[in-house]
Amino acid sequence: MANISDATVQISAVKCGSELLEYIKLAQDNAYYNIVGRSGELDVKEDGDTWTIEGSASGRWSYQHNASRYFPHPDNLEDLRHWVGKEKADEVEVSYRKLLDVIANNGGSVHISYGESESGALICGSGEVALIGRIDGKNSSQPFVEYSETYEALEYNAENVSSVHEADEYYDCAKCESVVCEIDKCAICRDLVCEDCEMYSCKGCNASICESCTITDSLMGNYCKSCH
């Protein structure tokens, strides 16, 4: 089974908000790997012609796969069809082409910005996919969509994971060295320890202590070094 990355996603749309929302709901309906949030609970903010959608998402190995396959280059939609499956490939492609047409003809844009991390494969990075409506005045004066995709891979550590997710703070566990959001602190050595590494409660003072600072009495239980 593939590892699943966690992503923090922001999508902004100019002059194509309703078409983007329609596409997202259709494309990620019953999908295992989503674009942003849950279709029925999307956080949408409208400010005139600009719509913004924010939320979390899961990626197959890397969320970069989600971004590039749900929002592929206009000249190559085979990745999109394969990603969503043959049962709804035609319907999703029609919706995506409709979005592209509106972007091109209205001079609109869509920007998908995200930060992601995945501990199993040590993935950490941020990226963006941009769809921007342009008019080629030199050749045909026909509107088209300019496409770009960027990705910056970062070293997997607590500081970088925190930076790509912004809202949450991450730490290096002192015991297993994993990067985690939820963490406890030993009252004695002050090491930060993740929830997967066992902590103990001192019978004397009730302090939360790590295994290294725990003295176990076979009759009385666990004590910290100060209370033993």
Walk me through the structure.
The chain has a 6-stranded antiparallel sheet, sandwiched between helices. Strands 7-8 form a two-stranded antiparallel ribbon. The protein has helices at 17-27, 63-70, 78-84, 89-106, 158-165, and strands spanning 4-14, 43-47, 50-60, 109-118, 123-135, 143-153, 171-172, 179-180, 183-185, 192-194, 199-201, 208-210, 214-217, 221-224. It folds into 2 domains: 4-165, no CATH class; 171-224, no CATH class. The mean pLDDT is 85. The protein is elongated. The chain is built from 5 helices and 14 strands. With 228 residues, it is of the alpha+beta class.
**N to C succession of SSEs:** EHEEHHHEEEHEEEEEEEE
Q: Main β-sheet: number of strands, strand sense, barrel status?
A: 6 strands, antiparallel
Distance between the termini: 47 Å
Number of domains: 2
Return the average pLDDT rounded to an integer. 85
Report the structural category. Answer: alpha+beta
* Shape label: elongated
Set out the fold topology:
Elements: E1 4-14, H1 17-27, E2 43-47, E3 50-60, H2 63-70, H3 78-84, H4 89-106, E4 109-118, E5 123-135, E6 143-153, H5 158-165, E7 171-172, E8 179-180, E9 183-185, E10 192-194, E11 199-201, E12 208-210, E13 214-217, E14 221-224
Antiparallel strand pairs: 1-3, 1-4, 2-3, 4-5, 5-6, 7-8, 9-10, 11-12, 13-14
Helix pairs in contact: 1-4, 2-3, 3-4
